[in-house]
Amino acid sequence: MGLVTPDYGLLFWALLSFGILLFILKKFAWKPILQALKNREESIARSMRMAEEARLELAKLQQENRRMAEKARQEREREIAETKVLREKLLAEAKEQARIETQKMLDKAREQILLEREAARKELYESVASLTIELSEKILRNQLKDRERQQEYLERLLDEMPKN
Fold first, then answer.
1. Contacts of 140 (CB under 8 A, 6+ apart)
2. Is the confidence at residue 4, as pLDDT, over 80?
3. Residue whose C-alpha is closest to residue 157's, from 135, 83, 144, 114
């Protein structure tokens, strides 16, 4: 039972060894260990601050990215709307131009038809007049073969003419 009940001499030497070890540790090792712990703590705190700053910066960049994406989407939508308006305008202009050209062509065709109709009327009139003259000439030649009939006809024409 010597291990359970310590002897005073063993207790003295154990306390003396522990005291010397504590003194040596305090004199030579305690400050470097505390300094290392302090440096480690500062390093961890600095890393935590940097991590927080990085997180804030990342959040700011994400917000900026969202804002830029929204701006790009709005710009794209505006350009699409402008393109649609321009397309509608160009289509309307093209339709109007086609309508004007069609109207010009119709007017020109109507004018051409009128000119051709007038030319045909004139030609018909000339043909009818020519035929009428030929026919009248043949009839008159036939009726006025002799001199006496010619004389009577001339007198009748002179009587029918208005007198000035």
1. 153
2. no
3. 144
Distance of alpha carbon 11 from alpha carbon 35, whole angstroms: 33
Domains of the chain: total: 1
**74 belongs to a structural domain:** yes
Task: State how far the Cα of 77 lies from the Cα of 83, in Å rounded to an integer.
Answer: 10
- pLDDT reported for residue 163: 66
Q: The tokens of 31 are what?
A: 């400050």
In a domain, residue 60? The reply is yes
What is the rounded average pLDDT of the residues 51-58? 95
Max CA distance (Å), the chain: 198
Confidence (pLDDT) at 3: 62
SS3 category, 52? helix
Residue 74, CA distances (Å) to 65, 68, 78, 88 in order: 14, 10, 6, 21
Task: Record the pTM.
Answer: 0.41
Q: Give φ, ψ of 27 to 5 degrees.
A: -70, -40
Full residue range of the structural domain in which residue 149 is found: 37-159
Instruction: State phi, psi for 145 to the nearest 5 degrees.
Output: -70, -35
Q: Is residue 32 part of a domain?
A: no
Check residue 1 and give its pLDDT.
Answer: 47
Q: How far is CA 3 from CA 10, 14, 15, in A?
A: 11, 14, 17
Residue 27 inside a domain? The answer is no
